[in-house]
Prior knowledge:
The complex is a heterodimer of chains A (112) and B (110).
Chain A lengths: L3 E4 L2 E4 L5 E7 L5 E8 L3 E8 L6 E2 L7 E3 L5 E6 L8 E8 L6 E3 L3 E5 L1
Chain B lengths: L3 E4 L2 E5 L4 E7 L6 E6 L5 E6 L3 E5 L2 E6 L4 E6 L8 E7 L9 E2 L3 E6 L1
Amino acid sequence: EAAVTQSPRNKVAVTGGKVTLSCNQTNNHNNMYWYRQDTGHGLRLIHYSYGAGSTEKGDIPDGYKASRPSQENFSLILELATPSQTSVYFCASGAPTGYEQYFGPGTRLTVL
Amino acid sequence: EQQVQQSPASLVLQEAENAELQCSFSIFTNQVQWFYQRPGGRLVSLLYNPSGTKQSGRLTSTTVIKERRSSLHISSSQITDSGTYLCAMDPSSGSWQLIFGSGTQLTVMP
Lengths: 112, 110
């Protein structure tokens, strides 16, 4: 079965600090995505990637950077974390021709 | 404007009742997907239904492209069906940048 893992699962950060969220997939999917989920907003796309070395901005990229060093790994970077970035972050992978996205378990980030 | 609207926001059923969840879109799309999420859990894809009617077990989805809507019917609900149901669409066909609705929170009581 498709496997997407995320680390850490929970993170508490201080305002102004740097936070890196990591995602690993063993599906050999080209596409990977980072979303955040907030009450009343559903999931919103932050960044996505079509393959190693590529990153694209999603709907809400401000304050976030992404890195795709390999097919398997996709990171989300908050250079200067703010309390408004407190949320649950989900990573997903998907094949370019497929219609399904496989999600990781999520990372709960709290910025104090 | 929210591009994906879901209704109802919450729904409480007795076990064995049927549920009807609705999703409407602000633009035309032919890529619609339904997901399930337990509280605090990951999303699981339920059905991909770009048009017409698709069935998987007790789940039936109907998408009408020209009316910009999709529905998910759950028959004979079970307590384990409780959770949040999300619909999502791809606004630019084939790019797989999904836009999600806010979800319908379903509670099935014994």
